[in-house]
Amino acid sequence: MQHFAHRRRLVPLIALGVVAGLAPGIAGGSASAVTRRTAAASQDAPAADRLAPYTRQKLTWERCAPDKPAAFQCATLKVPLDYRAPEGRRIDVAISRIRTSDPDKRRGILTINPGGPGGPGLDLPLEAADALPKALLDQYDMVGFDPRGVGRSTPVSCGLTPDELPYPRVTRDAADAARNEAWAKTFADKCRAAAGERLPHNSTRNTARDLDVMRAALGERKLTYFGISYGTALGAVYLQLFPHRADRFVLDSAVDPGRLWRGMFRIWGPEGERAFQRWTKWTAGQDRTYHLGSSPAEVGRTFWGLVARADEEPIVFGDATLDGPAVRDLLRPELYSVRKGAEAVAMLKKAADGEHVPGLPAEEPGENEIASQTAVLCADAPWPRDPGVYRRDAFRDAARHPLYGDFAASIVPCAYWPRGAEPATTVHNDVTSLIVQNEWDPQTPLSGARAMHRALKGSRMVTVDEGEGHGVVFSDTRNACAENAALGYLATGRLPDRDITCHATPGSARHRSGDATLPRLTWP
Question: Fewer beta carbons within 10 Å, N or C terminal of the chain?
Fold first, then answer.
């Protein structure tokens, strides 16, 4: 989950989901492993006959691009803008696939969601084909999609200028609050003018319905899914709406389904303080290497001294020029990985002293990514409409959580956005699934994953003790224990018989499926 337009991509570029089954159909079937409440929720979709033009549509496949492999094919799926009125306006959902090279071993299709919201997923089958073990590639066609509003799927665009894109925005005083309120209203007004009819329907709930139309149109009986970050919210909503269509679901770096969405951002305030205290303690023990202080208090003073210096005179940090809030915004996620955080702050200290440094890698999200992301966050759940709520919360959270509280509580365009067409989806079911989670995740904290585990009562959870970073299975630092659990479940359908705690393995390089050094996995 990204907090809107953060400077760097915070969601891993690989997220896997699987669709498996034998025959199409979007309604009916039994929910053998779910509660009566869940089974009732599965009737959320319109009757099958009203969706028949979508579920029975014939897809036309063609090569995705001349510079891409011929086996990488694309098609356009038609879905209703509003599932409550499927005879109305239709929109496009772009999908892609790479078929298994071993049809005799084929189980079904593996669909892919990268998180976000707003992250395109059309090219992810290519990355999955490079990253997954052969045992999975033999079983599944790899299927990707751009969610509604994203990329090639009837994209949402608001005509925002580069200056209007970046947020979160800091709220330190009344002047900041007034500027941010004006900005949020302008942002929302532009989107309402450009895409007003579509905005209330650009929800996770409807994206889950789109997935089920895709499943049916592809002739599959069930959906298996691997989602990262925001993709865990999408997966959980699908489990709630279509429990009888769910097969193997892996949710990597899970959100709290009861905090969508403002609560998920505000929790970054207190969680950031916990991570900061851990980082200062670790860094104090490495003073000979980083020279940031020999006690946690001294390390903290060094950090806040740099923030103050940047407020007085912005620091040139690679290609960026950072004031105090920008330092906090940029470094907050780095501090969850203690070594990376120490390296980044030490580099910033050199930059403050006038030394040229490379800075941190940056990826500027495009206008469509930000507009579509905002559309989902605003449509999914209600947001306060009174700007005073955001002011009061930002001032209060800044005092309690100085690293990031004023950012995480600040106003967003949702305060002025058209209301979502439907209520928020309550997640509460017994469908089997697997959750994998790092202990120190800057975007989706461990507390959120535990809440998801409680809501998905049929789930098992794999926690990486002292694991750092956002994303477990396809992260830069691999963990064989977590991989065995997650990929093994996709391959065999066998859940662990209990929750598992894995131990972090710092220094392990990210693998490729062809690496000679890839440890042997413990499933066939």
Answer: C
Query: How far apart are alpha carbons 101 and 230 in whole angstroms?
Result: 31
- What is the C-alpha separation between 314 and 326, in angstroms, rounded? 9
Interatomic CA distance for residues 386 and 408, integer angstroms = 17
The model's pTM:
0.89
Query: Would you list the DSSP string of 78-90?
Result: EEES-TTSTTS-E
Closest of 524, 513, 517, 519 to residue 129, by C-alpha: 513
Burial class (CB in 10 A: 0-12, 13-18, 19+), 294: middle
Longest dimension (CA), the chain: 70
Q: Which amino acid is at 20?
A: A
For 229-245, b/e burial (b = at least 16 CB within 10 A) is bbbbbbbbbbbbbbbbb
Cα gap 464→401, rounded to integer Å: 26
Answer yes or no: are the C-beta atoms of 186 and 164 closer than 8 Å.
Answer: yes
Distance CA 76, CA 60 (A): 7
| Cα 195 to the center of its chain, rounded Å | 23
Instruction: Please report, as a single letter, which amino acid is at residue 454.
Output: R
DSSP state of 219: T
Other Cβ atoms within 10 Å of 436 Cβ, number: 31
**Which tokens sit at 284?**
């104090």
Backbone CA torsion sign across 263, 445, 162, 93: negative
Judge whether residue 219 has pLDDT over 70: yes
- 8 A C-beta contact, residue 136 and residue 491: yes
- Using the Cα atoms of residue 452, residue 454, residue 460 and residue 465 in order, give the sign of their dihedral: positive
pLDDT of residue 45 exceeding 90, the answer is no
- Give the H or E element holding residue 143: strand 140-145
Phi, psi of 104 (to 5 degrees): -65, -25
Q: Is 96 helix (H, G, I), strand (E, B) or coil?
A: strand
Give the type of residue at 195. Answer: A
Q: Are strands 73-80 and 315-317 parallel, antiparallel or unpaired?
A: unpaired
Q: Residues 457-510: pLDDT tens digits?
A: 999 999 999 999 999 998 878 899 999 999 999 999 999 999 999 999 865 444
Number of CB atoms found within 10 A of residue 448's CB: 25
Q: Cα torsion for 240, 243, 245, 247, to the nearest 10°?
A: 100
Distances (CA, A) of 131 to 225, 371, 513, 518: 16, 30, 5, 11
SS3 437: strand
